[in-house]
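Sample intake sheet
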Amino acid sequence: MPKGESMNALGCDVVCELLEMAVHTILYVRDVYPAHLFEKRKKYGIPVQVSRHPQLTAYIADVICQIRLWMEKGMLYNVLVTIFDKVGVAFHSFIVHYFHLIFD
């Protein structure tokens, strides 16, 4: 890797895949949507529950694409996933702290 090149250039795909699987898993484990809307798949040899609802899956993919843009610019520091109840009160929050690796 050239001197000073950010890990973003080589690792965005993997980090985005990880974030996408994490969001699906959070939604499944916290019962945000009914279990029948998820199916078990393997990612990197690990079983994960992934939404099979087209609109939900597309929404998650769109959000991850936006996160990737921030990541590529070196402007991503945290990803926050908050689950709200029916009246709008946050009852679960998950934070992923992202840091930038620079190789000399």
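Comment: The chain has two helices and four strands. The mean pLDDT is 87.
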